[in-house]
Amino acid sequence: MLFNRAKSVEANIEKFLENILKASLIFEQAIKDYFDGNMENFDMRKEEISKLESESDSIRRDIKHTLYKELLIPESRGDVLGLLESLDDVIDTSQNVLVRFSIEKPKVWNQLKDDFIELSAVAAKSVEEIVSASRAFFRETTKVPEHLVKVHFHEHEADKIEVRIMKKAFDGDFIEKFSEKVHMRYFAERISLLADESETVADKLDIYTIKRSI
Fold first, then answer.
1. Per-position DSSP letters for the chain, written without gaps between them
2. Which PANTHER family match (predicted)?
C-alpha cells in the first residue's frame, strides 16, 4: 500500500475513484435516455454528474492539501497528484458532453441510435478499466498492466464505432442536410473523447507504475 501512514488519504482516493466510476455509468445511461427520448431522466443524470464532478474536485484538493501538509510520500507525490488530475479530466469530459447534448439537442436518427448507445457503453468501459488500473496502482501494481490493456482495447473499439457512425451519416441518404451530418460526426467525436481521455490517463499510469517498480 502506498499510504500506510495516512488512512484518510486512502479513503479519499477510494471515494474519488468511486465518483469517476459512478459518473461513467451515469453517463452511459444518460446517453441512452437521450436517444430513447427520456429527457427528464437525461436531465436528472446530467445533474447527478455535475454534483459528482464538484464533489470530486473538492476531494482532490483535500488530498493535495494533506499530502503536502503532512509531508507524505514525497517521492511519489507528483505522480499521485498527476494521476488524480488526469482522472478529473475524465469526469469533466462526461459532464461537458452531456451539457453539449442539452444545449445543442442533436437530432435522433433511428439509423444511428444503436451506434451512439454502443459507443457510450464502450467509452464507459474504458473508464471502468482506468479506475481499476488506478486502484491497482495504489494497492497492487503488478495488476496495473492487465487493466491498461483493456483500456487500450476499449479505446480502439470506440474509434471503430465513431468511424462507423461517420460513414453512415455521410454515406447514407437518410440525412439530407450537410450541417446535420456534421452534427452527428461532432457528437460521435465528443462521446469517443471519453475513451480518449481514459487512454491518456493509461499512458501516464504506465509510466508512474514503471517508476514505482524501480
1. ---TT-HHHHHHHHHHHHHHHHHHHHHHHHHHHHHHT-HHHHHHHHHHHHHHHHHHHHHHHHHHHHHHHTT--TTTHHHHHHHHHHHHHHHHHHHHHHHHHHHH-PPP-HHHHHHHHHHHHHHHHHHHHHHHHHHHHHH-GGGHHHHHHHHHHHHHHHHHHHHHHHHHHHHSSS---HHHHHHHHHHHHHHHHHHHHHHHHHHHHHHHHHHHH-
2. UPF0111 PROTEIN HI_1603
The pLDDT assigned to 211 comes to: 84
- Domain residue limits at 148: 1-213
Query: What's the domain count of the chain?
Result: 1
- pLDDT tens per residue across span 75-128: 777 888 999 999 999 999 999 999 999 999 999 999 999 999 999 999 999 999
Q: pLDDT per residue over 156-201, tens digit each? A: 999 999 999 999 999 999 999 999 999 999 999 999 999 999 999 9
| pLDDT value at 5 more than 80 | no
